[in-house]
C-alpha cells in the first residue's frame, strides 16, 4: 500500500492512523515527493511501522508513483491518496475480486465525499466511465453534480477507469504497461492507464462492497488554473493516444471545439487565468504532438468504444448541458 505524499503532513496526521489500522496485513509505504513540510519527521516520530521512501525531488503524481512502485516488491499495489479515510475491511473485497479473476488488473472501491459521506465524491464515485469524446464521468457523478448514495451502486462490475485516489492494481500489469504516463504529470493519468490496460486485454473493475471517504482537491483546488491546464491538455492527449483509428479524427475535432467553448465561457465570466490555461493546454499539446504520435504508435491495438466496458457512444456534455441529465441512470447506460 503506497501513499504518495507532497507537503501533506496534515493529511497524514488525520488519515494515516486509519490506513495503518485497516491495512489487513499489507505493507504501508509513504513515498515522499521531496516535501518541504514536516512530513518525514512526523512519520519517523509517530508512525514507526510505516515505511518511508524519500524521493530526491518532486516528480509529480505520475513519476512519483512510477519511481516509488519500482522500489516496492509486491504482487499487488494499492495506490492511495493521502486525503483518503479508509473504512474497516475495505481492502478485503478488492483483493478477493482481483484474485478471483486473473484478467482484472485494477479495481476501485466506492468513493464517497469525506465532507458528506452520504454523497459520492467527484474523483471516482461508483466507477469511472468515458464518453465517445473521452470526457470522464462516474456512476454517482456527472460533471459537478453528485448523487446521494442509496445503495444504487453496491454492485461489482467492469468500468472504463478506476480512480487514482484509491485503487488496487496488479503489479504485473503495472510493469507491463510501464506505469503512469510521465508526460501527464498529474490529472487523468489513471484514466489513460486504465484505457491502456483495456487496449492490452486487461479488465478494470469497480467493487461497491468496499468504501472509502475522499477529501478531494488536497493538492490543487477545483478552480485552480494549473488544474484547468492539466485537465484540458491531458484530456486531448488521452484521446489522441488511446482512441481507435476510426474514432479519433472526428472526436478530436469536436473535443477541440468544445474546449474553446469552455475557454470562451471562462472569458465571459471574467476567469481570465482559466481561459489562458485552456489556450496554453492546446498550444502545449500540439507542440508535443510528435511525442504523442510516437506513444500512440508504440501502444499496439486500440479498441473501439463498443469493445471497451464503461465506454459510452453518447456525449455526456450534450446529455448534461443540453438535455439536463443530472444522474447516471438518466443516460440509459446498462
Automatic annotation (TrEMBL):
GO MF entry, a single one: glycosyltransferase activity
InterPro entries with a match to the protein in the record: Glyco_trans_2-like, Nucleotide-diphossugar_trans
Transferase in keyword set: yes
Taxonomy, superkingdom: Bacteria
Keywords, alphabetical: Glycosyltransferase, Transferase
Domain Glycosyltransferase 2-like: 2-107
Entry similarity comment: Belongs to the glycosyltransferase 2 family.
Full protein name: dTDP-Rha--alpha-D-GlcNAc-pyrophosphate polyprenol alpha-3-L-rhamnosyltransferase
Provenance organism: Hymenobacter nivis
Amino acid at each position: 500500500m503506497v501513499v504518495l505524499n507532497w507537503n501533506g503532513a496534515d493529511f497524514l496526521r488525520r488519515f494515516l492512523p486509519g490506513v495503518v489500522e485497516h491495512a489487513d496485513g499489507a505493507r504501508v509505504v509513504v513515498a515522499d515527493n521531496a516535501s518541504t513540510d514536516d512530513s518525514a519527521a512526523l512519520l519517523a516520530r509517530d508512525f514507526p511501522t510505516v515505511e518511508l521512501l524519500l524521493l530526491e525531488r518532486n516528480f509529480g503524481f505520475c513519476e512519483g508513483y512510477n519511481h516509488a512502485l519500482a522500489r516496492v516488491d509486491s504482487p499487488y499495489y494499492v495506490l492511495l491518496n493521502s486525503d483518503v479515510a479508509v473504512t474497516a475491511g475495505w481492502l478485503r473485497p478488492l483483493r478477493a475480486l482481483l484474485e478471483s479473476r486473473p484478467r482484472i488488473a485494477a479495481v476501485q472501491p466506492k468513493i464517497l465525499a469525506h465532507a458528506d459521506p452520504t454523497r459520492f465524491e467527484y474523483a471516482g464515485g461508483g466507477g469511472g466511465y468515458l464518453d465517445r469524446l473521452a470526457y470522464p464521468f462516474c456512476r454517482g457523478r456527472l460533471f459537478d453534480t453528485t448523487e446521494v448514495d442509496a445503495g444504487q451502486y453496491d454492485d461489482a462490475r467492469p468500468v472504463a477507469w478506476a480512480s487514482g485516489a484509491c485503487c488496487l492494481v496488479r503489479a504485473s500489469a503495472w510493469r507491463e504497461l510501464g506505469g503512469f504516463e510521465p508526460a501527464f504529470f498529474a490529472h487523468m493519468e489513471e484514466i489513460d492507464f486504465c484505457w491502456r490496460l483495456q487496449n492490452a486485454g486487461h479488465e478494470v473493475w469497480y467493487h461497491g462492497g468496499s468504501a472509502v471517504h475522499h477529501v478531494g482537491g488536497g493538492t490543487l483546488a477545483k478552480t485552480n488554473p494549473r488544474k484547468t491546464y492539466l485537465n484540458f491538455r491531458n484530456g486531448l492527449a488521452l484521446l489522441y493516444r488511446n482512441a481507435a483509428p476510426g474514432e479519433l479524427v472526428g472526436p478530436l475535432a469536436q473535443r477541440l471545439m468544445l474546449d474553446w467553448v469552455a475557454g470562451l465561457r471562462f472569458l465571459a465570466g471574467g476567469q481570465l487565468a482559466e481561459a489562458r490555461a485552456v489556450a496554453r493546454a492546446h498550444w502545449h499539446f500540439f507542440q508535443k504532438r510528435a511525442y504523442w504520435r510516437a506513444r500512440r504508435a508504440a501502444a499496439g491495438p486500440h479498441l473501439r468504444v463498443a469493445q471497451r466496458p464503461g465506454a459510452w457512444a453518447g456525449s455526456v456534455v450534450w446529455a448534461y448541458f443540453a438535455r439536463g441529465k443530472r444522474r447516471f441512470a438518466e443516460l440509459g447506460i446498462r
